[in-house]
Design brief:
The protein is mostly helical. The protein has 7 helices and 2 strands; from the N terminus they run ααααααββα. It has a two-stranded antiparallel ribbon.
Length: about 180
């Protein structure tokens, strides 16, 4: 009887440990998150295509980032966050930020590089890293699977700010993907 109780106690202790290494989300949710990353990339590239290059360094307000800096912030943050808070740390870098600030080709290369890295991180994220809790900037503790949703929220929030750059120049922003 003692052996049975000890076996049951050990099995009960091992079950939570096994559950922690398994992805707590359905496999299909990773595809939802990948679709969100692809939509972020599409939106930021459409911004780069729609804004005249001569306005890439323009700011909607004096304290705001320029148009190109805003796009870079959205894309670069996705890469930075995914590199540090979704699995073993990895760094993404882009060598030619000067071109990204002043040319369409440079800005689009920046966005594509950031999202190539970010989408690769999602594809490579293990089940254990999806279940692991990450300390996101010392502000929130989130499981690795949820960090992707935070990246999406940050990107869309930043993209919304970029709309002001279009409006101040009498331009409509590119169409939002869901309408």
């Amino acid at each position: 009887m003692r052996k049975l109780l000890l076996s049951l106690a050990l099995a009960g202790a091992a079950a939570p440990l096994a559950a922690q290494s398994a992805d707590p989300m359905p496999a299909s949710y990773r595809q939802v998150q990948l679709a969100a990353l692809k939509e972020q990339r599409r939106l930021l590239l459409s911004f780069a295509d729609s804004m005249p290059e001569r306005l890439y360094r323009a700011k909607a307000t004096p304290i705001q980032r320029s148009f190109a800096e805003q796009v870079q912030h959205a894309a670069g943050s996705a890469a930075f966050i995914s590199g540090g808070y979704t699995g073993p740390a990895a760094r993404w870098s882009f060598a030619d930020t000067a071109a990204a600030n002043g040319t369409r080709a440079g800005l689009k290369a920046f966005v594509n590089s950031a999202y190539d890295f970010t989408e690769g991180r999602l594809a490579a994220q293990s089940a254990a890293d999806r279940a692991k809790i990450f300390d996101l900037f010392g502000a929130r503790q989130l499981p690795g699977w949820q960090v992707w949703d935070e990246i999406n929220q940050h990107t869309m929030w930043t993209a919304g700010q970029i709309v002001a750059n279009f409006r101040m120049n009498g331009m409509a922003p590119p169409a939002f993907g869901f309408f």
